[in-house]
Structures are given as structure tokens and as C-alpha cells.
Write a structure and sequence with these properties.
six-stranded mixed β-sheet, 2 domains, 342 residues, 10 helices, 13 strands, three-stranded antiparallel β-sheet, 24% strand, Rossmann fold, alpha/beta
Length: 342
Amino acid sequence: MFRFEHTEILYTLLLIPVLAILFVWMLYWKKSALKRFGEWEIIQRLVPSISKSRLILKFIILMIGYAFLVIGIANPQIGSKLIEGERKGIDIIVALDVSNSMLAEDIKPNRLERAKQAISKLIDKLGNDRIGIIVFAGNAYVQLPITTDYSAAKMFLTTINTKIVPTQGTAIGEAIEMGVKSFDDETHSRAVIVITDGENHEDDAIEAAKDASDKGIIVYTIGMGLTDGVPIPEYNKYGRQTGYKKDRQGSTIVTKLNESMLQQIASAGKGAYVRANNTRSGLKKVFEEINKLEKTEFESKMFSDYEDRFQYFIAISLILLIIELLIFERKSKWLSKVNLFK
């Protein structure tokens, strides 16, 4: 198991492209300033010891050294001891709708992004609970098997988009059935959270929720969107909006929240229905309901000891910085006959 102890430090790596732009601008400004004194070819002859290649090489080495320094400060760690422990918690499967209608912007920034933000916050609140993620549109797929690895859950969450499932539609029933099959132990408290706008359901989702309830699995539903209806944005390959989706007759498609359907699914699954909007995501209330369930013990494998690896990155960084200091911008006399830096 590999991890960074201080992941927030890695954001400082974003300074590298900024510094690169400033460096290129500095070279351009320096050349422009020298041109004011005369012809560039003549000026180069007047200062033959100045090497632009050396300056660029020094900058590249400095940036690589900086990158290793940042990684070292973030402290990469490797799990060295795997142990099995007992945890008390609840098994949760989140079934997320990724059909095109989830791109509607009646909830900002759009239904799908709002749902992903809410799931991320839910993961932050989990203690000893296990979580799995299912994505669905015309078909359902397991995106993340049930796990206690919350870092992996967040990583998989970032990869979710409307293109991840090739077949369009809203197969809520299939998603619930797949959620039921994803639980590996019938003795645990289990819940399926369906996050969708509820449109164009293609199977008997109510019956699937009832079957899940008969097996002791509670089904909750969260409605993403508003009942008034909005058009679905359409984007080109560059991510720019080109208009709105239209049907075969050329009419703009309007997507509406199917609240009645989601209420019936929650009722059949002996759970609760919550509508999300621009001020609340609905997951907070659902999580409060889930927390009322009896928490059961389960075995969990986890890394208890992590070994630091920062020293290797810091050492490489120091070596590179020393090399950078030893490379002078001016050519030395004994290297004047060598074309290495020309």
C-alpha cells in the first residue's frame, strides 16, 4: 500500500509550469533588451562566454530538484504490516445514475457533479463502514467493489462521467439487483442508495427494491433535479457546449425529475426518499437514517505500519541542487573547445 502522508503539499507542484512560463518570458525579455544595443549576431560575438544552453540546463535541473523536494516533504510511505482487525459498521452501496440527463444544470454545476460532490462528502463521514459504487445508465456496472479503502473510493469517484456506460437509459432495477449481489455477507446491516433523476426507467425498479427489502437490504433514493424540467446540454470533444440535445424530430429534449417513481422505489425498499436541490444534496439526511441501523462486526485487512520514504527523494533533490550550483552560466576556459553546451 502506497500513500502520501501530506497530500496537500503536492499542490505546490503546480508552481512548476508557472515558473517555466516565467523562465521563457525572462529569456525573451533578456534577448529583447540586448537587441537594443545593436545586431544580435554582433552582441553574441561580444559575449561568447555566455551559454543559453547552460542556463536552460540549470533551470531544468532546478525544477526536477524542486519536484523531488516537494515529493519528499509530502512523505511517500509504503505499508509494511498488514493486519486483520474487527470493525463495526454498515455496508453501503451507492448506485449512481450516469445517463446524459444527469448533465442537466437545474442543480449546479450539474446533477452528476453535484451527486459526486455529495458522495465524496459522504465518504469523509464514514468511520468503520464499508462502501461500494455502482454506475448505471442503460446497464449497470460495478465501479468499485465494497471496501473500507476510502482513498480508493474517492479515486474511482473522480473517474465517473456520462461516457463510462455506453448504453443510454436509466436501468434503476438492474442497479439495485447488482447492489444486492455486491454484498458479501448477509449478517451485516446493508443499504443501497440510488442517486438518479428517475427518468426513463427500463425495468421494474419497484419490484427490485421489494426483493432487496425481503433480503434485509434497505433501499434509499435521492432525486437529482427539479420537477419543472430543463434541457440537456450537449458538448463537443473539447468540452464546449454546442447547444442542447434534440430528439429525432428536432425538438429540444427536456428532462424532469420523476419524483413519484423514486418515492415508490424507496417505499418498496422500506427506505426514504429525499430530493436534492441547490442548497442540499440529500445524502446527509439519508446517512443519518443509515446510521440508525445496527452496526455489525466484520473482518477488515488494513496496514497498521507505514515506512517513510521521504529521505530518498530529499537526497536526490539535494544532489540535483548541488549539480545546478556547479554549472555556471559562463563557459569555463578549459571547456571552451568543447561544444557540449552549444
